Amino acid sequence: MRLSYDFCVHHTRNGPTGFEPMKRYSAFAIAREALSGHKNWERAWRNAQPKSRYDVVIVGAGGHGLATAYYLGKNFGITNVAVIEKGWLGGGNTGRNTTIIRSNYLQDPSAAIYEKARSLYETLSQELNYNVMFSPRGVMMLAQTEHEVRGYLRTAHANALQGVETRFITPREVKEIVPIINLDGPRYPVLGALWQERAGTARHDAVAWGYARACSAMGMDIIQKCEVTGVRQEGGRVTGVQTTKGDISCEKLGIVVAGHSGDMAARAGFRLPIESVPLQALVSEPIKPIMDCVVMANTVHGYMSQSDKGEMVIGGGTDGHNAYTQRGSFHHIEETVRALVETFPMVSRLKMLRQWGGIVDVTGDRSPILSKTPLEGCFINAGWGTGGFKAIPGSGWGFAELMARGESSLCEEFSMWRFGEGKFIDESVAAGVAH
Ligand SMILES: Cc1cc2nc3c(=O)[nH]c(=O)nc-3n(C[C@H](O)[C@H](O)[C@H](O)COP(=O)(O)OP(=O)(O)OC[C@H]3O[C@@H](n4cnc5c(N)ncnc54)[C@H](O)[C@@H]3O)c2cc1C
Protein backbone atom coordinates (compact mmCIF):
# COMPACT_ATOMS: atom_id res chain seq x y z
CA MET A 1 0.00 0.00 0.00
CA ARG A 2 1.27 3.47 -0.81
CA LEU A 3 1.02 5.67 2.28
CA SER A 4 0.40 9.34 1.76
CA TYR A 5 2.75 11.58 3.73
CA ASP A 6 -0.12 13.13 5.63
CA PHE A 7 -1.05 9.72 6.88
CA CYS A 8 2.55 9.10 7.87
CA VAL A 9 3.12 12.12 10.02
CA HIS A 10 -0.17 11.93 11.77
CA HIS A 11 -0.15 8.26 12.67
CA THR A 12 2.12 5.91 14.47
CA ARG A 13 1.90 2.18 15.08
CA ASN A 14 1.25 1.61 18.75
CA GLY A 15 1.50 -2.03 19.79
CA PRO A 16 -0.07 -4.89 17.88
CA THR A 17 -3.34 -3.13 17.17
CA GLY A 18 -2.04 -1.11 14.25
CA PHE A 19 -1.92 2.62 13.68
CA GLU A 20 -3.15 5.16 16.14
CA PRO A 21 -3.10 8.94 15.74
CA MET A 22 0.27 10.54 16.43
CA LYS A 23 0.30 13.93 18.08
CA ARG A 24 1.60 16.76 15.93
CA TYR A 25 4.21 19.07 17.40
CA SER A 26 2.97 22.68 17.54
CA ALA A 27 2.89 25.72 19.79
CA PHE A 28 -0.55 24.55 20.90
CA ALA A 29 0.87 21.10 21.79
CA ILE A 30 3.57 22.73 23.96
CA ALA A 31 0.91 24.69 25.82
CA ARG A 32 -1.28 21.58 26.21
CA GLU A 33 1.59 19.44 27.51
CA ALA A 34 2.69 22.22 29.87
CA LEU A 35 -0.63 21.83 31.71
CA SER A 36 0.42 18.32 32.78
CA GLY A 37 4.00 19.32 33.59
CA HIS A 38 5.33 17.88 30.29
CA LYS A 39 4.81 14.36 31.62
CA ASN A 40 2.64 13.09 28.77
CA TRP A 41 4.74 13.60 25.65
CA GLU A 42 4.63 10.40 23.63
CA ARG A 43 7.84 8.72 22.51
CA ALA A 44 9.18 10.26 19.31
CA TRP A 45 9.81 6.80 17.83
CA ARG A 46 9.13 3.22 18.88
CA ASN A 47 12.04 1.21 20.23
CA ALA A 48 11.44 -1.75 17.93
CA GLN A 49 12.60 -5.36 18.15
CA PRO A 50 13.48 -7.10 14.89
CA LYS A 51 10.97 -9.14 12.89
CA SER A 52 12.26 -12.15 10.96
CA ARG A 53 11.75 -10.55 7.53
CA TYR A 54 11.58 -7.11 5.87
CA ASP A 55 11.40 -5.92 2.27
CA VAL A 56 14.34 -3.62 2.92
CA VAL A 57 17.00 -3.59 5.62
CA ILE A 58 19.18 -0.51 6.03
CA VAL A 59 22.36 -0.92 8.10
CA GLY A 60 23.21 2.29 9.99
CA ALA A 61 20.80 4.73 11.64
CA GLY A 62 22.77 7.86 10.84
CA GLY A 63 21.25 10.68 8.81
CA HIS A 64 21.84 8.98 5.46
CA GLY A 65 20.34 5.63 6.51
CA LEU A 66 17.28 7.23 8.11
CA ALA A 67 16.71 9.63 5.21
CA THR A 68 16.91 6.69 2.78
CA ALA A 69 14.28 4.82 4.78
CA TYR A 70 12.09 7.93 4.95
CA TYR A 71 12.12 8.57 1.17
CA LEU A 72 11.59 4.84 0.46
CA GLY A 73 8.32 5.24 2.37
CA LYS A 74 7.39 8.70 1.23
CA ASN A 75 8.30 8.48 -2.47
CA PHE A 76 7.85 4.77 -3.19
CA GLY A 77 5.40 3.47 -0.57
CA ILE A 78 7.95 0.90 0.70
CA THR A 79 7.39 0.80 4.45
CA ASN A 80 8.25 -2.76 5.47
CA VAL A 81 11.69 -1.45 6.35
CA ALA A 82 14.12 -1.96 9.25
CA VAL A 83 16.95 0.43 10.05
CA ILE A 84 19.53 -1.43 12.14
CA GLU A 85 21.99 0.47 14.33
CA LYS A 86 24.79 -1.00 16.43
CA GLY A 87 24.88 1.93 18.84
CA TRP A 88 22.27 4.61 19.30
CA LEU A 89 20.46 6.42 16.52
CA GLY A 90 22.46 9.42 15.26
CA GLY A 91 25.44 8.50 17.46
CA GLY A 92 27.90 8.18 14.55
CA ASN A 93 29.16 11.05 12.44
CA THR A 94 25.67 12.51 12.18
CA GLY A 95 25.83 13.50 15.85
CA ARG A 96 29.51 14.54 15.73
CA ASN A 97 29.79 16.95 12.83
CA THR A 98 30.02 20.73 12.72
CA THR A 99 26.73 21.01 10.79
CA ILE A 100 27.84 23.03 7.76
CA ILE A 101 25.43 22.90 4.83
CA ARG A 102 26.43 24.22 1.42
CA SER A 103 26.20 23.16 -2.22
CA ASN A 104 28.93 25.22 -3.92
CA TYR A 105 30.72 22.25 -5.45
CA LEU A 106 32.63 22.37 -8.71
CA GLN A 107 31.55 19.25 -10.56
CA ASP A 108 28.02 18.94 -11.97
CA PRO A 109 27.01 15.63 -10.31
CA SER A 110 28.14 16.96 -6.89
CA ALA A 111 26.38 20.30 -7.30
CA ALA A 112 23.20 18.45 -8.30
CA ILE A 113 23.01 16.19 -5.24
CA TYR A 114 24.22 18.79 -2.70
CA GLU A 115 21.85 21.45 -4.06
CA LYS A 116 18.97 18.98 -3.97
CA ALA A 117 19.88 18.39 -0.31
CA ARG A 118 20.21 22.10 0.49
CA SER A 119 16.86 22.88 -1.07
CA LEU A 120 15.19 20.03 0.86
CA TYR A 121 16.76 21.40 4.07
CA GLU A 122 14.92 24.70 3.48
CA THR A 123 11.55 23.09 4.27
CA LEU A 124 12.63 19.99 6.20
CA SER A 125 11.28 21.21 9.56
CA GLN A 126 7.80 21.71 8.12
CA GLU A 127 7.95 18.46 6.14
CA LEU A 128 8.98 16.34 9.16
CA ASN A 129 6.99 18.40 11.69
CA TYR A 130 10.28 18.51 13.61
CA ASN A 131 12.41 21.59 14.08
CA VAL A 132 15.79 20.77 12.54
CA MET A 133 16.84 24.41 13.12
CA PHE A 134 18.03 24.97 9.55
CA SER A 135 19.75 28.34 9.64
CA PRO A 136 20.64 29.70 6.19
CA ARG A 137 23.16 32.13 7.64
CA GLY A 138 25.60 31.99 4.71
CA VAL A 139 28.85 30.11 4.19
CA MET A 140 32.01 31.95 3.20
CA MET A 141 35.07 30.14 1.81
CA LEU A 142 38.07 32.44 2.04
CA ALA A 143 40.49 32.76 -0.86
CA GLN A 144 43.92 33.29 0.72
CA THR A 145 46.20 32.51 -2.23
CA GLU A 146 46.08 33.48 -5.92
CA HIS A 147 45.45 29.83 -6.67
CA GLU A 148 42.36 29.85 -4.46
CA VAL A 149 41.08 33.06 -6.06
CA ARG A 150 41.25 31.40 -9.49
CA GLY A 151 39.71 28.19 -8.12
CA TYR A 152 36.75 29.93 -6.48
CA LEU A 153 36.12 32.19 -9.48
CA ARG A 154 35.91 29.03 -11.53
CA THR A 155 33.53 27.45 -9.00
CA ALA A 156 31.33 30.58 -9.00
CA HIS A 157 31.06 30.37 -12.81
CA ALA A 158 30.34 26.64 -12.67
CA ASN A 159 27.68 27.22 -9.99
CA ALA A 160 25.99 29.86 -12.17
CA LEU A 161 25.66 27.25 -14.94
CA GLN A 162 24.42 24.63 -12.44
CA GLY A 163 21.74 26.91 -10.98
CA VAL A 164 23.50 27.10 -7.59
CA GLU A 165 23.48 30.64 -6.19
CA THR A 166 27.00 31.70 -5.21
CA ARG A 167 29.23 34.68 -5.92
CA PHE A 168 32.83 35.71 -5.49
CA ILE A 169 33.08 38.66 -3.08
CA THR A 170 35.83 41.22 -2.47
CA PRO A 171 37.86 41.59 0.78
CA ARG A 172 35.77 44.70 1.60
CA GLU A 173 32.55 42.70 1.40
CA VAL A 174 34.18 39.97 3.51
CA LYS A 175 34.95 42.51 6.23
CA GLU A 176 31.41 43.90 6.12
CA ILE A 177 29.93 40.43 6.66
CA VAL A 178 32.56 39.31 9.21
CA PRO A 179 33.83 42.36 11.14
CA ILE A 180 36.08 40.27 13.44
CA ILE A 181 38.23 39.04 10.55
CA ASN A 182 41.82 40.19 10.00
CA LEU A 183 42.23 40.72 6.24
CA ASP A 184 45.97 41.44 6.28
CA GLY A 185 47.46 38.23 7.65
CA PRO A 186 51.24 38.17 7.23
CA ARG A 187 51.24 34.79 5.48
CA TYR A 188 47.73 34.48 4.08
CA PRO A 189 45.91 37.79 3.49
CA VAL A 190 42.25 37.51 2.55
CA LEU A 191 41.99 38.13 -1.21
CA GLY A 192 38.25 37.49 -1.53
CA ALA A 193 35.81 34.67 -0.86
CA LEU A 194 33.27 32.35 -2.40
CA TRP A 195 29.98 33.32 -0.72
CA GLN A 196 26.83 31.21 -0.65
CA GLU A 197 24.13 33.20 1.06
CA ARG A 198 21.50 30.42 1.39
CA ALA A 199 24.00 27.92 2.80
CA GLY A 200 24.27 27.56 6.60
CA THR A 201 23.84 25.11 9.44
CA ALA A 202 21.20 22.85 11.04
CA ARG A 203 20.94 21.03 14.35
CA HIS A 204 22.57 17.69 13.52
CA ASP A 205 20.82 15.45 16.09
CA ALA A 206 17.46 16.91 15.17
CA VAL A 207 17.94 15.87 11.54
CA ALA A 208 18.40 12.25 12.65
CA TRP A 209 15.59 12.48 15.20
CA GLY A 210 13.17 14.11 12.76
CA TYR A 211 13.70 11.46 10.10
CA ALA A 212 13.54 8.68 12.73
CA ARG A 213 10.21 9.94 14.03
CA ALA A 214 8.75 10.15 10.53
CA CYS A 215 10.04 6.63 9.67
CA SER A 216 8.58 5.21 12.86
CA ALA A 217 5.29 6.92 12.08
CA MET A 218 5.21 5.06 8.76
CA GLY A 219 5.50 1.76 10.66
CA MET A 220 9.21 1.21 9.99
CA ASP A 221 11.33 -0.47 12.69
CA ILE A 222 14.39 1.35 14.01
CA ILE A 223 16.40 -1.26 15.89
CA GLN A 224 19.13 0.16 18.13
CA LYS A 225 21.96 -1.66 19.97
CA CYS A 226 21.96 -4.32 17.25
CA GLU A 227 25.13 -4.89 15.26
CA VAL A 228 25.06 -6.40 11.79
CA THR A 229 27.77 -9.06 11.93
CA GLY A 230 27.34 -10.74 8.55
CA VAL A 231 25.53 -10.59 5.21
CA ARG A 232 23.66 -13.69 4.07
CA GLN A 233 23.64 -14.51 0.37
CA GLU A 234 22.65 -17.23 -2.06
CA GLY A 235 23.61 -17.54 -5.71
CA GLY A 236 25.12 -14.04 -5.80
CA ARG A 237 22.00 -12.43 -4.28
CA VAL A 238 21.52 -10.99 -0.83
CA THR A 239 19.04 -12.88 1.35
CA GLY A 240 19.47 -11.18 4.70
CA VAL A 241 21.76 -10.19 7.54
CA GLN A 242 23.15 -11.78 10.69
CA THR A 243 22.86 -9.54 13.71
CA THR A 244 23.51 -9.64 17.44
CA LYS A 245 19.71 -9.95 17.81
CA GLY A 246 19.39 -12.87 15.36
CA ASP A 247 19.10 -13.40 11.62
CA ILE A 248 16.86 -11.14 9.54
CA SER A 249 15.80 -11.90 5.96
CA CYS A 250 15.37 -9.17 3.39
CA GLU A 251 14.78 -8.59 -0.29
CA LYS A 252 17.12 -5.61 -0.50
CA LEU A 253 19.94 -4.39 1.69
CA GLY A 254 21.32 -0.85 2.00
CA ILE A 255 24.73 -0.42 3.66
CA VAL A 256 24.97 3.11 5.06
CA VAL A 257 27.63 2.95 7.77
CA ALA A 258 30.05 5.84 6.97
CA GLY A 259 33.43 5.16 8.67
CA HIS A 260 32.71 1.41 8.79
CA SER A 261 31.92 1.05 5.08
CA GLY A 262 35.06 -0.93 4.23
CA ASP A 263 34.38 -3.29 7.12
CA MET A 264 30.72 -3.87 6.14
CA ALA A 265 31.62 -4.30 2.46
CA ALA A 266 34.10 -7.01 3.47
CA ARG A 267 31.30 -8.76 5.37
CA ALA A 268 29.23 -8.65 2.18
CA GLY A 269 32.17 -10.06 0.18
CA PHE A 270 33.45 -7.10 -1.84
CA ARG A 271 36.11 -4.40 -1.53
CA LEU A 272 35.67 -0.63 -1.64
CA PRO A 273 38.24 1.97 -2.71
CA ILE A 274 37.85 3.73 0.63
CA GLU A 275 39.90 4.71 3.68
CA SER A 276 38.67 5.39 7.22
CA VAL A 277 40.25 8.36 9.00
CA PRO A 278 39.47 10.28 12.20
CA LEU A 279 38.12 13.80 11.86
CA GLN A 280 38.00 16.03 14.93
CA ALA A 281 36.23 19.20 16.03
CA LEU A 282 36.11 21.39 19.13
CA VAL A 283 34.01 24.14 20.70
CA SER A 284 34.99 27.11 22.80
CA GLU A 285 33.34 28.53 25.88
CA PRO A 286 30.13 30.40 24.98
CA ILE A 287 30.62 34.09 24.17
CA LYS A 288 28.37 36.93 23.02
CA PRO A 289 27.28 36.90 19.33
CA ILE A 290 30.27 37.89 17.19
CA MET A 291 29.84 36.10 13.87
CA ASP A 292 26.58 35.23 12.14
CA CYS A 293 27.82 33.10 9.23
CA VAL A 294 30.18 30.16 8.67
CA VAL A 295 33.76 30.96 7.61
CA MET A 296 36.07 28.37 6.11
CA ALA A 297 39.78 28.92 5.56
CA ASN A 298 40.77 25.93 3.48
CA THR A 299 44.39 26.90 2.79
CA VAL A 300 45.24 26.77 6.49
CA HIS A 301 42.70 24.02 7.30
CA GLY A 302 40.42 25.71 9.77
CA TYR A 303 36.80 26.78 9.85
CA MET A 304 34.50 28.35 12.39
CA SER A 305 30.88 29.27 13.14
CA GLN A 306 29.01 30.31 16.27
CA SER A 307 26.38 28.03 17.77
CA ASP A 308 23.07 29.28 19.14
CA LYS A 309 24.52 28.80 22.64
CA GLY A 310 27.40 31.12 21.77
CA GLU A 311 30.18 28.53 21.50
CA MET A 312 32.59 28.93 18.60
CA VAL A 313 32.40 25.65 16.66
CA ILE A 314 35.81 24.91 15.17
CA GLY A 315 37.09 22.21 12.85
CA GLY A 316 40.05 21.45 10.66
CA GLY A 317 41.51 18.70 8.50
CA THR A 318 41.49 14.94 9.00
CA ASP A 319 44.12 13.13 11.09
CA GLY A 320 47.08 11.94 9.05
CA HIS A 321 46.53 8.22 9.66
CA ASN A 322 43.85 5.57 9.27
CA ALA A 323 42.06 4.61 12.48
CA TYR A 324 38.74 3.72 14.09
CA THR A 325 39.14 5.83 17.23
CA GLN A 326 36.27 8.27 17.71
CA ARG A 327 38.08 10.69 20.00
CA GLY A 328 39.95 13.98 20.08
CA SER A 329 43.67 14.60 20.54
CA PHE A 330 45.78 17.56 21.71
CA HIS A 331 47.77 18.00 18.49
CA HIS A 332 44.53 18.70 16.65
CA ILE A 333 43.55 21.56 18.98
CA GLU A 334 46.98 23.10 18.56
CA GLU A 335 47.12 22.74 14.76
CA THR A 336 43.60 24.00 14.10
CA VAL A 337 43.71 26.92 16.51
CA ARG A 338 47.15 27.92 15.19
CA ALA A 339 45.70 27.91 11.66
CA LEU A 340 42.82 30.18 12.62
CA VAL A 341 44.65 32.69 14.81
CA GLU A 342 46.20 34.62 11.93
CA THR A 343 42.81 35.34 10.35
CA PHE A 344 40.87 35.50 13.63
CA PRO A 345 43.25 36.91 16.31
CA MET A 346 40.42 36.79 18.91
CA VAL A 347 40.65 32.98 18.88
CA SER A 348 43.91 33.21 20.87
CA ARG A 349 41.94 34.49 23.87
CA LEU A 350 39.20 31.86 23.74
CA LYS A 351 39.07 29.00 26.23
CA MET A 352 38.30 25.71 24.52
CA LEU A 353 35.54 23.73 26.18
CA ARG A 354 35.47 20.25 24.64
CA GLN A 355 36.56 18.28 21.59
CA TRP A 356 35.57 15.02 19.94
CA GLY A 357 36.18 12.89 16.87
CA GLY A 358 34.35 10.75 14.32
CA ILE A 359 35.50 8.28 11.68
CA VAL A 360 34.96 9.43 8.13
CA ASP A 361 35.21 7.31 4.98
CA VAL A 362 37.22 8.95 2.24
CA THR A 363 37.46 8.00 -1.45
CA GLY A 364 40.27 8.90 -3.85
CA ASP A 365 38.32 11.62 -5.66
CA ARG A 366 36.69 12.91 -2.43
CA SER A 367 33.22 12.13 -3.80
CA PRO A 368 30.70 9.66 -2.40
CA ILE A 369 29.64 6.23 -3.59
CA LEU A 370 25.90 5.62 -4.12
CA SER A 371 25.85 2.38 -5.98
CA LYS A 372 24.74 -1.13 -6.70
CA THR A 373 27.35 -3.67 -5.62
CA PRO A 374 28.67 -6.99 -6.96
CA LEU A 375 26.10 -8.64 -4.67
CA GLU A 376 22.66 -8.41 -6.27
CA GLY A 377 20.08 -6.64 -4.12
CA CYS A 378 22.80 -5.05 -1.99
CA PHE A 379 23.42 -1.31 -2.34
CA ILE A 380 26.07 0.94 -0.80
CA ASN A 381 25.92 4.58 0.28
CA ALA A 382 29.36 5.64 1.51
CA GLY A 383 32.39 7.85 1.04
CA TRP A 384 30.87 11.15 2.16
CA GLY A 385 34.11 11.78 3.97
CA THR A 386 34.29 15.06 5.83
CA GLY A 387 31.22 16.57 4.17
CA GLY A 388 28.18 14.33 4.24
CA PHE A 389 25.94 16.05 6.79
CA LYS A 390 24.94 18.67 4.25
CA ALA A 391 23.98 15.93 1.79
CA ILE A 392 21.63 13.92 3.98
CA PRO A 393 18.24 14.79 2.40
CA GLY A 394 19.58 14.63 -1.19
CA SER A 395 21.48 11.42 -0.58
CA GLY A 396 18.43 9.79 1.04
CA TRP A 397 16.25 10.96 -1.85
CA GLY A 398 18.57 9.58 -4.54
CA PHE A 399 19.60 6.39 -2.74
CA ALA A 400 15.95 5.48 -2.01
CA GLU A 401 15.24 5.87 -5.74
CA LEU A 402 18.25 3.70 -6.61
CA MET A 403 17.11 0.99 -4.18
CA ALA A 404 13.47 1.12 -5.27
CA ARG A 405 13.92 1.46 -9.04
CA GLY A 406 17.45 0.26 -9.71
CA GLU A 407 18.45 3.64 -11.11
CA SER A 408 18.52 7.29 -10.09
CA SER A 409 19.71 10.34 -12.01
CA LEU A 410 21.13 11.82 -8.78
CA CYS A 411 23.28 8.73 -8.13
CA GLU A 412 24.19 7.74 -11.68
CA GLU A 413 27.73 9.16 -11.68
CA PHE A 414 28.55 7.96 -8.14
CA SER A 415 28.89 4.27 -8.97
CA MET A 416 31.61 2.30 -7.17
CA TRP A 417 32.94 1.15 -10.55
CA ARG A 418 33.93 4.68 -11.60
CA PHE A 419 37.36 4.19 -10.03
CA GLY A 420 38.09 1.24 -12.33
CA GLU A 421 36.72 3.13 -15.33
CA GLY A 422 38.66 6.34 -14.60
CA LYS A 423 35.45 8.42 -14.37
CA PHE A 424 36.41 10.37 -11.26
CA ILE A 425 34.30 13.20 -9.88
CA ASP A 426 37.29 15.11 -8.67
CA GLU A 427 36.31 17.44 -5.84
CA SER A 428 39.64 17.09 -4.04
CA VAL A 429 41.23 19.79 -6.15
CA ALA A 430 38.24 22.05 -5.60
CA ALA A 431 38.56 22.28 -1.82
CA GLY A 432 41.32 21.30 0.59
CA VAL A 433 38.67 20.70 3.23
CA ALA A 434 35.39 19.30 2.05
CA HIS A 435 32.96 20.19 4.83
C1 LIG B 1 34.21 16.15 13.39
C2 LIG B 1 33.37 16.06 12.14
C3 LIG B 1 32.94 17.23 11.54
C4 LIG B 1 32.17 17.18 10.38
N1 LIG B 1 31.67 18.33 9.86
C5 LIG B 1 30.82 18.30 8.81
C6 LIG B 1 30.20 19.49 8.37
O1 LIG B 1 30.39 20.58 8.93
N2 LIG B 1 29.36 19.42 7.30
C7 LIG B 1 29.12 18.24 6.66
O2 LIG B 1 28.39 18.25 5.68
N3 LIG B 1 29.65 17.07 7.10
C8 LIG B 1 30.49 17.07 8.16
N4 LIG B 1 31.05 15.90 8.63
C9 LIG B 1 30.77 14.65 7.93
C10 LIG B 1 29.40 14.08 8.27
O3 LIG B 1 29.23 14.05 9.66
C11 LIG B 1 29.23 12.68 7.70
O4 LIG B 1 29.57 12.66 6.33
C12 LIG B 1 27.78 12.21 7.84
O5 LIG B 1 27.29 12.44 9.11
C13 LIG B 1 27.68 10.74 7.51
O6 LIG B 1 26.39 10.31 7.86
P1 LIG B 1 26.03 8.80 7.81
O7 LIG B 1 24.60 8.66 8.11
O8 LIG B 1 26.53 8.22 6.52
O9 LIG B 1 26.98 8.15 8.92
P2 LIG B 1 26.84 8.01 10.51
O10 LIG B 1 26.08 9.11 11.11
O11 LIG B 1 28.21 7.74 11.02
O12 LIG B 1 25.93 6.71 10.63
C14 LIG B 1 26.41 5.40 10.36
C15 LIG B 1 25.89 4.50 11.45
O13 LIG B 1 26.19 3.15 11.13
C16 LIG B 1 26.36 2.46 12.33
N5 LIG B 1 27.04 1.19 12.07
C17 LIG B 1 28.33 1.01 11.67
N6 LIG B 1 28.59 -0.31 11.53
C18 LIG B 1 27.44 -0.97 11.85
C19 LIG B 1 27.09 -2.34 11.92
N7 LIG B 1 27.96 -3.31 11.60
N8 LIG B 1 25.82 -2.67 12.31
C20 LIG B 1 24.92 -1.70 12.62
N9 LIG B 1 25.22 -0.37 12.58
C21 LIG B 1 26.46 -0.02 12.19
C22 LIG B 1 27.17 3.43 13.20
O14 LIG B 1 27.05 3.14 14.57
C23 LIG B 1 26.55 4.77 12.81
O15 LIG B 1 25.57 5.22 13.72
C24 LIG B 1 31.83 15.92 9.79
C25 LIG B 1 32.26 14.73 10.40
C26 LIG B 1 33.01 14.79 11.58
C27 LIG B 1 33.43 13.52 12.23
Automatic annotation (TrEMBL):
It comes from the Bacteria. PANTHER family: FAD-DEPENDENT OXIDOREDUCTASE DOMAIN-CONTAINING PROTEIN 1, SARCOSINE DEHYDROGENASE-RELATED. It comes from Mameliella alba. SUPFAM superfamilies: FAD/NAD(P)-binding domain. Its cofactor is FAD; FMN. It is found in: Cytoplasm. Belongs to the SoxB family. NCBIfam families: soxB. It is an enzyme of class 1 (oxidoreductase). Its EC number is 1.5.3.24. GO terms for molecular function: nucleotide binding; sarcosine oxidase activity. This is Sarcosine oxidase subunit beta. It catalyses: sarcosine + (6S)-5,6,7,8-tetrahydrofolate + O2 = (6R)-5,10-methylene-5,6,7,8-tetrahydrofolate + glycine + H2O2; sarcosine + O2 + H2O = formaldehyde + glycine + H2O2. Residues 56-100 form the Rhodanese domain.
